[in-house]
Design brief:
With 225 residues, the protein is of the alpha/beta class. The chain has one domain: Ribonuclease Z/Hydroxyacylglutathione hydrolase-like (Metallo-beta-lactamase, Chain A, 4-Layer Sandwich), CATH 3.60.15.10. The protein is globular and about 45 Å long.
Length: 225
């Protein structure tokens, strides 16, 4: 099976990622208002939405899944998510967010908390090889930020960790290479456990939904600090 190029796509509130190889996948989709920018960023890399083989969702928060329904409806593109986040995706609501840092509750005033639900024709992804995509991509169930958060090991060096962690401050505007805990977490204890799980693997570079990428050493420093 072939290798995949990881192409970060910086959107309004979050990062999406284009995986380009034998097949083409989009990891996360931004908020609904990101769609024009998303289309332009894909065009830079000579990809259109209708060419996507699937959309892989790291978790069901509005700043990551805001365009999933439109992409599914217009282009018949498979939408893949972990079963533990399906209820949120079908409801179209982030749920009650638990802030990790003082003041981060203010983010909920800016970032949309509701999104267009995706209610059917979902593909379930769980721990193990991403078999339906016919690739060597490995799925890790990494709960903590949400119950169904997943990380995607693209090759032996690189992992897409969604919002398990964040890079830097103010969405990565400052010191984006420094690993930090996410702004919100259903369970910070589970975030730490999931992070240790990834650290046990060979991945040296962690691509994140906000800021980043960050190095394995930076992630180790966070956990050991």
């Amino acid at each position: 099976m072939g290798s995949y190029q990881i192409i970060p796509l910086k959107l309004q509130f979050s990062n999406a990622f284009l995986l380009k190889g034998e097949k083409i996948a989009l990891v996360d989709t931004g908020v609904a208002s990101d769609l024009p920018k998303l289309i332009k960023l894909l065009a830079v890399h000579k990809v259109t939405l209708k060419e996507l083989d699937c959309v892989l969702l790291t978790h069901a928060h509005g700043d990551h899944v805001g365009n999933a329904k439109q992409i599914q409806d217009e282009f018949k593109c498979p939408i893949a998510i972990h079963p533990a986040d399906v209820d949120r995706l079908k409801e179209g609501y982030n749920g009650k967010l638990k802030p990790v840092y003082a003041g981060t509750q203010l983010i909920t005033k800016v970032v949309p908390q509701r999104f267009t639900p995706v209610t059917d024709n979902l593909t379930m992804i769980e721990e193990g090889p991403l078999d339906f995509f016919d690739s060597d991509i490995q799925v890790f169930h990494t709960p903590g930020h949400t119950p169904g958060s997943v990380s995607l090991g693209i090759d032996s060096e690189n992992v897409l960790a969604g919002d398990l962690l964040i890079g830097g401050y103010l969405g990565g505007v400052f010191r984006s290479h420094i690993a930090r805990y996410p702004y919100f977490a259903d369970s910070l204890e589970e975030v730490r456990t999931s992070t240790k799980k990834l650290l046990a693997e060979s991945y040296q570079t962690y691509y994140l939904g906000h800021g980043g990428p960050v190095s394995k050493n930076s992630v180790k420093g966070l956990i050991q600090g």
